[in-house]
Every structure is written in structure tokens, then in C-alpha cells.
Automatic annotation (TrEMBL):
Pfam families: cNMP_binding, HTH_Crp_2. One of its GO terms (biological process) is regulation of DNA-templated transcription. Keywords: DNA-binding, Transcription, Transcription regulation. GO terms for molecular function: DNA binding. Residues 130-205 form the HTH crp-type domain. It comes from Rhizobium freirei PRF 81. This is Transcriptional regulator, Crp/Fnr family. The keyword Metal-binding does not apply.
Length: 223
């Protein structure tokens, strides 16, 4: 599983805890108070609304990720809860003068910004250079790596995934109809299945080889 923020350490710093119900806005580009939000539980999506009214999901935000309201404002993105999301919030010392923070906290924030950049780089490659099956398979492999893949008694690999087909389509630039067809093709090819909120990898190694996925790309450890 990819490295994550040391949640218990972040909790110990005494940030302001807040829970957002599914569907609610966590932050948007109109926020006027720069904050750093560390996700303790839940799934969220950071997205942009295009001029034609369609949504493009730039990133799924998971447990152990950091949300920078300053970055969201600069990017003109909105972060919205997919499930109930609990965060702990701190003033953004990168955007506010005279805000002190422990040295290790600085390192955590820098590492989170590096992880974000890695994911954005891969997202660009995914949209620009991979076909529909490859970009969908890559994104699901990435999410599984970040969430942590479980195994059942038969050693089958899976992870819980609260996304809809529309969410997936908005993240890889495909219509819901197209995503439905791609997921069916992957299931029939023995690569993965997505049913009832569970992504089950039928042959994760073959899928990773097919889409050129390396899970170590998402392991940026805090020093």
C-alpha cells in the first residue's frame, strides 16, 4: 500500500476536526481562509466544471491524503465528499504569514504535495496516452494501491470502492455508457470485476503489465 500521512501524529497536533456528509462540499475555489485538511476517513473527489457543464474529476481524495484549500482555489477546483468524510484542519502555513509549525509537520506537508504531483503526472499520461481500457484499469489499480488491497480466504484480491460508473467516467474522460462497456470487457477478459461497490482483481499482475502500472510510483514516504 502507498505511504500515507502518520494520522496519529497529525491528530496529536490538535487540529479542528470536522465531518462532511456524503455529497457535501468540503472546499471550493471561493474559500477565503487557507487551510490544510488531512483526511482521517472517507472518500472525496476534487473536480473542475468545464465550460460545457461537464465535470472532470482531477483526483480522488482518500484516507491519509491532504487537501490544500489554497491549491484548490488556484486550480479552481471543488472538493466534494463521496462518502461521509472526517478531516482535521490546520491553518495553511504555506499561504499565511507568521504561522509556525513543527519541523516534522513541514515534512509531512511537503511529502503530500509531492504525492499529489506524482498522481497528477500519471493522470495526464493516463488521459493523453492510454486507451479506454488502459486508463480505466490504471486508475482502479492506483486506487487499490492507495486504499490497500484485501484478500479473502480464497486469496482473491479486492478493495471496497464507493464510486459510481459516472464517477469513474468523469475521472478518465469517458461516458457512463463507455465505462460500462469497458468494465464488461475487463470482466470478460478475466482482468477485474466491479460489482456492488467492490473491485475484485481477477488477474492483477496481468492487468498491471497490460497498463504499465508500477505501484512503487505511489510510495513517497515521509522522511
Amino acid at each position: 500500500m502507498a505511504a500515507q500521512i502518520p494520522i496519529e501524529y497529525v491528530r496529536s497536533l490538535g487540529g479542528v476536526a470536522r465531518t462532511f456528509v456524503a455529497g457535501s462540499e468540503i472546499c471550493g475555489y471561493g474559500d477565503d481562509m487557507p487551510r490544510l485538511l488531512f483526511v482521517l476517513n472517507g472518500w472525496a473527489a476534487s473536480s473542475k466544471m468545464l465550460p460545457n457543464g461537464t465535470r472532470f474529476v482531477t483526483e480522488f481524495v482518500l484516507r491519509g491524503d491532504m487537501i490544500s484549500t489554497s491549491l484548490a482555489a488556484l486550480s479552481r477546483e471543488t472538493v466534494r465528499a463521496i462518502t461521509n468524510v472526517t478531516v482535521t484542519a490546520f491553518p495553511d502555513f504555506t499561504a499565511l504569514p507568521k504561522v509556525e509549525a513543527p519541523t516534522y509537520f513541514y515534512r509531512i506537508v511537503i511529502a503530500e504535495l509531492v504525492r499529489h504531483q506524482v498522481r497528477m503526472s500519471e493522470r495526464l499520461a493516463n488521459i493523453g496516452r492510454r486507451d479506454a481500457l488502459e486508463r480505466t484499469g490504471y486508475m482502479l489499480l492506483e486506487l487499490g494501491t492507495r486504499v490497500g488491497i484485501s484478500r479473502d480466504c480464497a486469496n482473491s484480491e479486492y478493495f471496497d470502492c464507493p464510486l459510481t460508473q459516472a464517477d469513474i467516467g468523469d475521472a478518465v474522460g469517458l461516458s457512463t455508457v463507455h465505462i460500462n462497456r469497458v468494465l464488461r470487457d475487463m470482466r470478460e477478459a478475466g482482468l477485474l470485476s466491479f460489482r456492488n461497490g467492490i473491485v475484485a482483481f481477477l488477474d492483477r499482475a496481468r492487468l498491471a503489465d497490460l497498463v504499465d502500472f508500477d505501484e512503487s510510483d505511489f510510495d513517497t514516504t515521509v522522511i
